[in-house]
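Supplementary Methods S3. Input chains for the assembly prediction are listed below.
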Amino acid sequence: EVQLVESGGGLVQAGGSLRLSCVGSGFTFSKNWMSWVRQAPGKGLEWVANIKQDGSEKYYVDSVKGRFTISRDNAKNSLYLQMNSVRAEDMGVYYCAREPGGYSPDFWGQGTLVTVSS
Amino acid sequence: QSVLTQPPSVSGTPGQRVTISCSGSNSNIGSYIVHWYQQLPGTAPKLLIYSTSQRPSGVPDRFSGSKSGTSASLAIIGLQSEDEADYYCAAWDDRLNVRLFGTGTQVTVL
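Predicted structure tokens for the full assembly:
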């Protein structure tokens, strides 16, 4: 059974940092693109970033470029999102998702909530 | 940043057919496959349609997807109460180099 389990969310002050983690199981993690998608309270889905199987390619939405860094550790079946200079508009649920072949996600984790205080 | 436009809401009675549109451009829907997702309240999104018109195992055949030019559509044929949810389209955009999600459509069963 495919599973993606996120952790690391919580309360962070504006301007602060947070590191999200996601552990995958039930599939060959190292053979898949992976991504982070977020959802602000009461709003729609917003793709944040993705990373190629070997980490050699990464793409980001403009609003997080220079502040967020996506990375992975295939030996640990883990995906990360380092969030720096966090802003109020970064608040929401962050989902880890599998992107087979680099296409849109086919499986999502349950999400981790990031709350930003001013 | 989404440039995939969906109607905010659609509604129908049980058994009816409803259609959700997803309007984009040549740099996204016009050039790439489209995925559709269903998100029930308080849960993570679930893949409903992939590669524009394919259903994953376990998705009822009352859901179907199609594309024409720079627009895609999701049809629910024979609406059921459990279909009340938010629906999103998604596609890669090679002008922005990002994956775009549609603005989302809330489906209500009357």
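The mean pLDDT of chain A is 97. The interface with chain B takes residues 35, 37, 44-47, 50, 59-63, 95, 103-111 of chain A (CB under 8 Å).
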